[in-house]
């Protein structure tokens, strides 16, 4: 004989009319149902949806959608930090125990078996509020509050979970802190005042958020001159968890963009001269130009969208060349070039980067904040970095050097009706032209292979095989109707 179902006032209790065992005056329980109830079979059950939502609200638990991982807010730091699965399940068990004591339903505490806790944790990943990594322009989480750089002067605000910070600087902002040794021992011996200012404003712009100027900073020149040390110091101040290593030759790889999720700056130190000419380098313009990109993470089915608004810093020695692909104006708009052309220190300081971080990290942060405020002002006035004539000339020279044969043909040759030049004469003139400008020339074979197409495009003349040298009367390859510019 079947058991009769529990009733209330003579009516059978179905699923839709489950009997709450407690009445809690809480907005979450009022919206999603009371936490503990009798099911249709008269057994005590937990309303998992409302309990998990209440747990997320009370314990400040959220989910970071880009990674699909749970995060927990810490009041003392203002940061949403990763919440490991074991920690979350332990906190859920404790939350259930306290709820059982409060509502005097101790049998609920005995439900916290591994399967039940896994069920709650899985539901938590679905219903917990999404915490998007902090992307508000001009706000930075520091050790002593939220640094606000949106005004004419920096200000520090109180912590709040509403900001959604998932990364934080490990330093406090102290406006009076100094970085005398950083400036006098590292920057000023290597760079002039204008370039020190440019470095300050570019790295300061990282604190502002996205790369509004859409620029790539290239530090180029003397090996051992301090480029990599400078980048290492500023990486540590800005926060290593905000930075990803740049591998331009891998940018067209399947998983490379996935590593950039949640980052602000991409850096390449001591990279080879072909860093801007390998196949993947053309994607650098997309990474700084605001393009919509997709990142793929290993073992994660869904691709993640990201916007190419990263800051990019490249430190390399000489012989840098760009694969322009006919897009020289776009590269001209994208680049900033700081030349480390002064002699390197006679006696290098071992572990200088580590010493500067230990002694002056907060002073360097204050210096970067000054740069951020300066850049914010020049963005409002100019829409981009304000460069000196020399700084712009460097960029133009790098663009020209990257298309050195075309540049030589445009500026070193001209149409002359009664003149003719052999290929070898043009190659010799090209090499002298590069030497005058301190460019690294292409090989003779590379110049010869490129010359036919470039001469046709620039001067509308074609290569011939019947150019006769006056002294030998031997027919060789060359061009008729062109000569060197006087």
Fill in the keyword field for this structure:
21 strands, Arc Repressor Mutant, subunit A, disordered N terminus, Rossmann fold, alpha+beta, 3 domains, 3-stranded antiparallel β-sheet, 486 residues
Number of β-strand runs: 21
Low-confidence stretches: 1-17
Q: Spatial order of the strands in the main sheet?
A: 13-14-17-12-18
CATH architecture of the largest domain: 3-Layer(aba) Sandwich
Overall mean pLDDT stands at 89
CATH topology of the largest domain: Rossmann fold
| CATH uppermost class of the largest domain | Alpha Beta
Estimated structural class: alpha+beta
Main sheet overview: 5 strands, parallel
Taken from the alpha-carbon principal axes, the silhouette is elongated
- Beta-strand percentage? 15-25%
What is the number of helices? 14
Query: Structurally, how many domains make up the residues?
Result: 3
CATH homology superfamily name of the largest domain:
P-loop containing nucleotide triphosphate hydrolases
Distance between the termini: 115 Å
- Rg (CA only): 32 Å
Helix content range: 25-40%
Topology:
Blueprint: E1 7-8, E2 11-12, E3 19-20, H1 27-32, E4 36-38, E5 44-46, H2 48-59, E6 61-64, E7 69-74, E8 79-82, H3 85-102, H4 114-127, E9 139-142, E10 145-148, E11 155-157, H5 180-187, H6 193-208, E12 216-221, H7 227-238, E13 243-245, E14 265-271, H8 284-288, E15 292-295, E16 304-307, E17 311-316, H9 328-334, E18 335-340, H10 352-382, H11 389-402, H12 404-412, E19 413-422, H13 423-436, H14 444-459, E20 464-468, E21 475-484
Parallel strand pairs: 12-17, 12-18, 13-14, 14-17
Antiparallel strand pairs: 1-2, 3-4, 4-5, 6-7, 7-8, 9-10, 10-11, 15-16, 19-21, 20-21
Helix pairs in contact: 2-4, 3-4, 6-10, 7-10, 12-13, 12-14
